Amino acid sequence: MALEIERKYLLEVPYQQLVDQGIIAVQSEQRIEQTYIALDEDQELRVRRIKDLATGAYEYTHTFKNGVGLAREEVEYSITQVIYEQLIAACGYVPLTKNRITATWNNTTVEIDVYDQVNFIVVEVEFASMEEADSFAPPSWFGEEISFNKTYSNKSVWRQLQQSSQQ
C-alpha cells in the first residue's frame, strides 16, 4: 500500500488571479465526479470519473484509503467505464463534483479543487515524507490549514450532499 502524505488549505484568492499574476503555472485541469461506495471512520472506498479538460479523455479509478490525518495508506487503480457505471447505478448516490487544477508554485506541485456543491476552494500539497510535510511553510495565499478539519474532507462534504439530496 502506498502512503499518501498531504496538507490541505482553504484557498483565499481566486486561482485565476494566481495564474494572471504568475504565482502559479497551470499544468492540467480535470473534471472529477467522485462517489463513495463504503465509508468508515478511518477507511473509505471510492470511485471516480476523471475527464481531462484539454483532451476530453476519460479515466475511471477505484481507490481504497485507510487512516486519518496527514498520512494515509492508499491503493488506487484504473477500472473500466462499464464497471464504474455499474457501481454508480447500484449505489444510486449523487457524486461530488469538482474541477481539479494541477499547477506549479516555487517548484512545488499544488492541486486546487474548485467544488460545485459547496462554497469553498481547497489547495493541497503532497509530500514524500512526514518530515517534508512538517517543515513545509505555506504562502499566505494558501489560507487556513484544514488538514485536520473533517468538515472540509471530501468524505464529509459527500455525506452532506447525500443527506441534502434525500430531503
Question: How many whole angstroms does the radius of gyration measure?
Answer: 16 Å
Largest sheet: 8 strands, antiparallel, barrel
Fraction of residues in helices? 10-25%
How would you spell out the order of helices and strands? EHEEEEHEEEHH
Task: Determine the strand fraction and express it as a percent band.
Answer: over 45%
CATH architecture: Beta Barrel
- Indicate the low-confidence ranges by residue numbers: none
Q: Counting H and I runs of at least 4 residues, what is the number of helices? A: 4
CATH class: Mainly Beta
**CATH superfamily name?**
Hypothetical Protein Pfu-838710-001
Domain module tally: 1
Question: In one word, what is the shape?
Answer: globular
Q: Please name the CATH topology.
A: Hypothetical Protein Pfu-838710-001
Mean pLDDT: 95
Determine the structural class based on helices, strands and strand pairing.
alpha+beta
Strand line-up in the sheet with most strands? 1-5-4-3-2-6-7-8
User: Can you count the beta strands?
Assistant: 8
Span of the ends, CA to CA = 38 Å
Pfam families: CYTH
Active site: 36 (proton acceptor)
Protein name: CYTH domain-containing protein
Domain CYTH: 2-164
